[in-house]
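I have been asked to look over a protein record a colleague put together. Alongside the sequence sits a line of tokens, each denoting a local backbone shape. I have pasted the whole thing underneath without changing anything:
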Amino acid sequence: MVKRIDNILDFDDIIQYVGEFGVWQWSRLFLIVSLAPMFGGFGPIIMVFTEAEIGHYCKIPELNMTDNAYFHDNTDTIDLLNNYIPKDMEDGAFAQCKMYGGGNNTNVCNEGYVYKRTDMENTAAMEYNVVCDRKYLKTIGRSMYFVGMLIGSLIQGQVADYFGRFPTFYGSVALHILITASHYFTSSYEAMIVQRIFLGASSQMLFIVGFVMACEMAAPKWRTFTGVVTEGYFGIGIAICTCIAYLMRFDWRLMCVVAAAFGIVPFLGIYFIRESARWLLTTGRVRRASRVMNYMASTNGNVIPLNIQEQFKEMEKGTESNDSPNKTFGNGKLVVDDNDADDQVDIADTENSDSGRHLSQPVYSTLTLLKTPNLRFRTIILSMNWFVNVIGYYGIALNMDQFGDSAFLDNVISGVLEIPGCVLCFLLLHFCGRKKPLMGLEIAGGLACIGAAVIPSPWVKIILAQTGRIIFTATFIMVYVVSSEIYPTVVRSIGIGANSCFARIAGILCPFLMLLREYWKPLPFVIIGILTIAAGLTVITLPETHRKPLPETLEEGENFGTQKDVHKPSLLLNTEDKN
């Protein structure tokens, strides 16, 4: 017979004895876990610089000139080009996709193209001539990257919640390394489009699981900080990859290999990282959870009290005892039936041992989020906010060449500016809660997009665009933090993955949205601005999550922020320390 325990053993209660954010959390966050999201920031930058938009003209064999000679701004060059290349009727510049074919007739570039190789000496777009009548492939390639991110979002939650955070984390990093390095062997741009799918999927998986691991290893009051640090590393990754692209601008294939090599860094700390103790406890792996939390406490210079150790032993006995027929443990807590006359412990969804063999583990899916009204409504609102944040962030990030003169400088500045964006986010979340900062910044970001699109001054455009990117960096973190705090532990990865699916749909649509510039140049960013403002107004319907205990079960998640939201008193807070 298993001894009766009168309440619940909860991870948020235990963490105060382990160390809310000690040496263990600091070292793992800054030196291991956040390096994967940083590496994830390489994906979009690789895409930007392997297919950078470069000036080009039709190749004129008779001229026998180097590529860059076509772009010399002198009278002799201009006079030569006047004989072979027509001028655009709108702006008077030389046409990039036409040449004279006899008399005043114009033909397409039958002899190929020449490129302005001053900023980038060699790119995939140059090598495969992804310009003019093949330019559509670039739009498809960018969309396929976000299709991959969508796929990563769909499978990440299921994989991380079933197999665990640790194997999903390192598996995603390994896949990202292989796919990035495989660009070296690409034989066609069509093959690169396929690679984009896998690159996007691995990038999304490693970012989300890294974010979840960071949030789950800290106490509630540190969740904002961990989320901000994770996003800050993503910005650092953008700046680092831009520097790699600049140094390797002479060979886009070598650039991809060097970028892939950076992915090895997270593996250097594989011995020092452990599975998420919160996930282990939630899925009934009591013995492993106990070992991990004792290791964390030891590293932090703490000792878990004896009474808690005894409770762990009781839970382990409960999972292995055949005297307890109603074994269920789906909540990540030790639950006791007060009406049980036989004083048995009711433990669900557990494993028979730490080998991973489950007795009766419930299977959750995206449909679980839609079964109850509050979770369903919040999933819709959060998905809408993820959608606009991604379309705003990547709308600016992938089109910085529309606002400034140097893609290298603009992207380095943008990556570095994500750090003050993260600091701004942290301060607002810490002192102002969640709802008001998210709503206010989304409205401000929408106005910045509209202003950058319609105001003619180049300097005002670049300032508003960079401001918008800082804002979207902050709101991107906020929506991650709010989502991780609203969803209960048992479906947290699934919930964030579901929201991320809508974000990736936004990413898929973003390159096509940019095609609307053909009709009115400011139109894409005006649309983004209006959508962002509208989404910001919906945030008021969400519950405030600031400094609230994380919901663990589906019931707690459904009642979170309502009158039924009653957090049970903790055994750890009411039991005398036996040490």
Observations:
- The longest strand covers residues 99-102.
